Amino acid sequence: MKQAVYVLPDSPAAREDFEWLKAEIKGAGGDASVFAADSVDTWSADALVDEFRRSRQEAYLALAGEIEQVVRRLGATRRARGTRKPAAGRLLEVFRERLAALERIDFFGSAGRDAVVTYLAQLEAR
């Protein structure tokens, strides 16, 4: 184990992802192994869950901040009706995709998601 270790909850989807990644690495001439842990001591399991939650929370908060900035800009610029609709619509879609990507890897229900959803609703209303 020279370069890195990646940890995901033991689920069929996670195993499939790791096997796919292993095949990609080997196909590129690298070496990879997939290990499944049967048990982790209590402190380690709690620490891993906390790290997953912290990481996702940071990502949610960063995304919420970006969306909030766009909402403020749209509120501050009073333009003719419809002038900003296409740009805001594209941003809304990009932000929704980013939220969906975060939700796919938020295995433990991290804090911060609700703020993103709130700002998305505000952006959609604008």
Spans of at least 5 consecutive residues with low confidence: none
- What is the element string, with H for helices and E for strands? HHHH
Instruction: Determine the strand fraction and express it as a percent band.
Output: under 5%
Computed Rg: 20 Å
Mean pLDDT: 85
Number of helices: 4
Helix content: 55-70%
Going by helix content, strand content and strand pairing, the class is mainly alpha
Straight-line distance between termini = 50 Å
* Major β-sheet annotation: none
Shape: elongated
Count of β-strands: 0
Short description:
The chain is mainly alpha-helical and 126 residues long. The chain has helices at residues 12-27, 42-76, 85-104, 113-125.
Report on this model:
The chain has helices at residues 12-27, 42-76, 85-104, 113-125. The longest helix has 35 residues, at 42-76. It is elongated and about 55 Å long. The model has no long low-confidence stretch (mean pLDDT 85). The protein contains 4 helices and no strands. It is mostly helical and 126 residues long.
